[in-house]
Amino acid sequence: MVRTRFFENIELLLDNFKNYKDEFSNFFKASESQSRELITAFKEFATYMAEENSKAFIEALNKTIKDFNNNLIESFGSNFKQLNEAVIKLVDWQEHYKETIESTTENQRVIFDSFTGIEKELQTFSSETKNINSIVTELSTITKESMEQNIKLNAQKEPKGNSPEKLSLRDKCKSYRNQITQIRKENGEITEAVR
Q1: pLDDT digits 0-9 by tens, 95-104
Q2: Burial code of 134-146, b = ≥16 C-beta within 10 A, e = fewer?
Q3: Among 2, 66, 183, 192, which residue's Cβ finds the most Cβ atoms within 10 Å?
C-alpha cells in the first residue's frame, strides 16, 4: 500500500509536471503571439510617428521659408530696385563707350605696329653706326698721324722757341683731337643706346 501510494504520488507529480509543461508551453505560445502583436504595433506606431514628424517638419520649414521670403522682400525690395536701375545704367554706359574702347584698341594696335617699325629702324641704324664708328676710328688714326708728321715738320723748320705759328698749330691739333674724341664719344653713346 505504501508503495502504491508512492507510485500514485509519483504519477500525480508526473501529471502535474505535464500539466505545468503544457500550461508553460501554452503561456510561451501566447506570449510569443502577444510579443509579435506588440512588435507589429510598435512598428506601426514608429511609422506613424515618422510620417507625422516629417509632416510637421515640412510644415514648419515651409512656414519658415515663407517668413524668410516675406522679410527678404520687405527688407531688400528697395535695394533690389536700386540695383536693377544701376545695372540698366551700366549697360547703357557700356553701349555708349563701346566705340571709344574700340577706337582705343585700334590706336594701341597702331602704336605697337609703330614700335615694331622703330625697332627695325634702330637695328638698321645700329648696323650703320658700326660702319661710321670704324670709319671715324680710321680717320682719327690718319688725322693723328698727319698731325704728328705736321708737328715734326714744323719742329724741323724751327729748331727752338715757341713761335706764335707753332702754338697756333698745336692749338689746332688739340682742337682736332678734342673734336674727334667728342665724335667717338657721341658715336659710342648712340651705339649703346641702340643696343
Answers
A1: 877 888 888 8
A2: eebeeebeebeee
A3: 183
* Whether the Cβ atoms of residue 147 and residue 176 lie closer than 8 Å to each other: yes
The answer to whether the CB of 113 falls within 8 A of the CB of 142 is no
- End-to-end CA distance of the chain, in Å? 145
The model's pLDDT over 57-82, given as tens digits with 9 standing for 90+, comes to 899 889 998 888 887 777 766 677 77
Q: Dihedral of CA 165/169/171/175: which sign?
A: positive
User: Between vectors from CA 55 to CA 49 and to CA 59, what angle results, nearest 5°?
Assistant: 145
Alpha carbons 90 and 87: distance in angstroms, whole number:
5
Selection from 154, 188, 158 nearest residue 173 by Cα: 154
Give the Cα separation of 171 and 181 in Å (integer): 15
